[in-house]
Protein: Patatin-like phospholipase family protein
Organism: Candidatus Methylospira mobilis
Amino acid sequence: MNETELATKRPFRILSLDGGGIRGVISARILQEVEKAIREQCNGQSLTEYFDMIAGTSTGSLIAAAVAVGYSPSTLVDIYQNEGTKIFPYQKLMDPRRWKLLLQNGPSAPKFSNEGLIGVIQGLEKFKKGGEYIKLRDVGRESPEQAVPNPILVIPAFDTKYRNTTVFTNYRPSDKKKWYLEQPLWKICLSSASAPTFFPPCEFTNTEANGEEWSFPHVDGGVTANNPALCAISRAIELGHKLENIQLLSIGTGQNKNPMEFNEIKGWGLVQWGLHISDVFMEGQAEVQGNICLNLLGGFKSNRYLRLQFDLNKAFGEAPNYLARAPILRPAERVNTWLKKHLSEAMDDARNDSVEALLEATNGYLESGNVYDSRFQHYGPVKENIKQFVLGSTEDRACCQKQA
């Protein structure tokens, strides 16, 4: 088989990164291992050389954008460790540092201002070029003449005005004048990370050539696509890639399995459900989208789909005889599989000991965890699955070059 034939066999590779607040440190640490496997198996290639498209929601959008402009996963782990408390500076809803927000907006105020989040994103030096913030259209392009960016970036956020999901991307060959292409990358990330109840919305404004002004308010992409994998697949198909030639690596931020029993939730109203919007609504639809992707791409055995995700704490015992009904563990027994202690599942718990515990748990998952497609069925060790995904099929192994 010659090089041209090999190139046509090479799959269109997508990296998808979930939302999850400070738990994005889990994704960044897993991505370190993926990067290592790619360099070892594919002649030193970088993440942006290996993947054709990188998609990210919320905290995943920050990782996706940062990787796209040249940051390493190791640097991103450091950012979560060192900058997390600037984004999530406190835990309690009535912390004195929140009083200003309460005075401005009343009891419905978001938990945090977005000043810390903006400061961290704008502080990323590679989000600037020549002293100015780079625009979305410039990401992945060495020059304006470069047609296809490397990589293609996909970032979803929810437009609350027109009630639709905006899928921000740096590549739209059929619509080169899309309004968001001129928006700064940092603001695209801010919009996707503006989680309801945690942060205020992000507003995009623009003035048309005829003088007409408009405003698009956006909130966290996790409202509709906390797992952006389906958005990425849809975008790839729209660009002309066949489903059977798509290969997808999906990385989560740890799963909250805390059981909510009937007697606990039967009296819940607006406030209680609002406090659980991330771990109920966002994580629930992320799991559904992951299962759809699994089936679309032929399951784990196809080697075209790999989902790297683990339970933060074990909440259920072993179900006898493969029954769907598993016994619920007592609260004191709900601990992380590898650390044997309870992990904080809050997406805004940026305390140093909590972040370090997330990293330790991720190390345990990488070293001795398995890849699962259900509660009972697993497909072997995580590291081996990463290696096999990177290698792809037998035909793929002979060619690590991208499609033209």
About this structure: Confidence is low (pLDDT under 50) at residues 1-7. The radius of gyration is 21 Å. The domain at 3-398 is CATH 3.40.1090.10 (Cytosolic phospholipase A2 catalytic domain). Residues 136 and 312 are 34 Å apart (CA to CA).
